[in-house]
Write a structure and sequence with these properties.
The protein is 81% helix and 0% strand. By secondary structure, it is mainly α. The protein is globular, with a radius of gyration of 22 Å.
């Protein structure tokens, strides 16, 4: 069978996935995320304090530069493979053989371009150049990643278990070896080794359970998927621009210490946003399965997706805004002066970022890659223009605002392009989450004024107040709904 025929062969639609299966998948990923949170609670403060703002700023710059070339290494391959495998499991062999083969070629070419950029255009200091080259090795190792096989089949527990082992290995290397600012090179090396371990642990069960072939380099087969992947890849590149271009500009316009403070604050905000990729991993395969079929399952998945997005984003954003200063002081120490203000305004992204992810997730499963590209292009252009005018004068605080604003532009554009698709009742989800969030905010403000306690105790108190009030609100809503029927 030809590659084209194999790609286009149809299969009967999969059965709807139950809420229990979604909850189990979410629990598996949440457990992994809790481990990912627990590790940074130890590793992240150790790293930022040991390196200091200047060295940590150089590390953040290297990661941002490598990230851009990493998108050239994998222009939408994983997203496309996940979507197609979710629609038709018979395509897995084709996807592994040809899509993975293309990804290996693109990763090798991209790393070559990264090396050229590093030696011709990167800042002249040797540590920055070494960090860029080491950070780039991560996307070369990621070219063999096959998590999408299990994500497409909603088998998140396998991903969670393997990734947890890799995270523990990463943490062990960092805690054992990082001592001062000259040890910054250990961090991208530990990331590389962790990725290699995770890839190996995913590859072995994939080979055993799905009998997947080895990747092949066959450009004649790429014509069936490369145009779609390139559109997705350019969309990801635009998304990376409005996420990371501020880091690159700060490197060239401001001092390394200010850059390091911003990168550290941004990293803490990213940890708070970790529920977004979890929800994406859970719901993206489900939305792909039901896209364009006109059944109730797609609307149900989208409603659950919206409820979860609002239910996490709203309290995390409000709590982060209130606790910004004590939280950053606890994590970063006194070296990172001004990080509390930066993190406080970065919490705006905790609202606009999940909104952009939610509305954007409706476009790709429905084959609207071009519309998604236009959305993220608008966000990228907004970020670039604002940063060019504002960063030289206002520095990191301007970068915090432009990031949130750019994400908001993407959310609005994605909503516009998805307005003719299924519209779940997001206002109902907002109505459920708002009262518990207000109660949580009142508790946090009162405790900070009347009973000053440690910030971790405040976080625990806020979580308890929110989830307790949320459970009561949902119970009352269900009883009212049952009584009305």
């Amino acid at each position: 069978m030809s590659a084209t025929a194999q790609l286009t062969r149809e299969q009967s639609p999969p059965p709807a996935v139950s809420l229990a299966r979604i909850v189990n998948n979410s629990i598996a990923l949440v457990l992994l995320d809790l481990l990912n949170k627990a590790i940074p609670l130890v590793v992240f403060p150790r790293v930022v304090r040991a390196l200091g703002p200047a060295a940590y700023g150089r590390l953040g710059f290297a990661g941002a530069v490598a990230g851009f070339f990493g998108l050239l290494a994998s222009p939408g391959f994983s997203t496309y493979a996940l979507r197609e495998a979710a629609k038709n499991s018979a395509r897995v062999s084709f996807l592994v053989k040809h899509v993975l083969g293309a990804r290996i070629v693109f990763a090798s070419a991209s790393y070559t371009l990264l090396a050229i950029f590093t030696f011709l255009f990167a800042p002249r200091d040797g540590q920055t150049r070494l960090l860029i080259m080491l950070s780039g090795l991560a996307f070369v190792a990621s070219s063999l990643d096959m998590q999408w096989i299990f994500s497409a089949r909603s088998r998140m527990s396998i991903i969670a278990a393997r990734s947890a082992l890799a995270q523990l290995a990463y943490a062990g290397l960092i805690l054992a070896l990082v001592r001062g600012s000259m040890d910054a090179w250990i961090i991208p090396l530990a990331t590389l080794l962790s990725l290699g371990l995770s890839t190996l642990l995913i590859w072995m069960p994939a080979r055993r359970q799905y009998h997947i072939p080895l990747p092949e380099i066959s450009p004649q087969a790429w014509a069936t998927f490369l145009p779609i992947c390139l559109v997705m890849g350019f969309s990801s590149l635009m998304s990376m621009i409005y996420d990371q271009i501020d880091v690159v500009m700060l490197k060239y316009f401001r001092a390394d210490a200010e850059l390091g403070t911003y990168v550290a604050s941004y990293a803490l905000m990213t940890m708070a946003l970790s529920f977004v990729p979890i929800l994406g991993q859970v719901f993206m395969p489900l939305l792909s399965e039901t896209a364009g079929k006109g059944n109730d399952a797609g609307e149900k998945y989208l409603r659950w997706f919206g409820n979860a997005t609002i239910g996490f984003a709203l309290p995390i954003a409000v709590g982060g805004f209130i606790l910004a200063v004590p939280l950053t002081q606890f994590v970063f120490g006194s070296q990172y002066s001004g990080s509390g203000i930066l993190f406080r305004w970065l919490t705006l992204t905790l609202i606009t970022g999940p909104a952009a992810s939610y509305f954007g997730a409706q476009l790709i499963p429905n084959g609207r890659e071009k519309q998604y590209f236009v959305s993220v292009l608008a966000g990228a252009l907004t970020n670039i223009v604002l940063n060019l005018f504002l960063i030289p004068r206002y520095g990191a605080i301007a970068a915090a605002f432009t990031t949130a604003l750019s994400q908001g532009v993407v959310a609005l554009m994605s909503y516009y392009f998805a307005k003719d698709l299924t519209k779940p009742p997001l206002l109902a989800a907002l109505a459920i989450s708002t009262p518990p969030t207000c109660l949580m905010a009142a508790c946090l403000v009162t405790m900070r004024i009347v009973f000053p306690v440690h910030v971790l105790a405040l976080v625990a108190l806020g979580a308890l107040a929110y989830f307790g009030a949320y459970a009561v609100t949902v119970t009352l809503k269900n009883r009212i709904s049952a009584a009305s029927t």
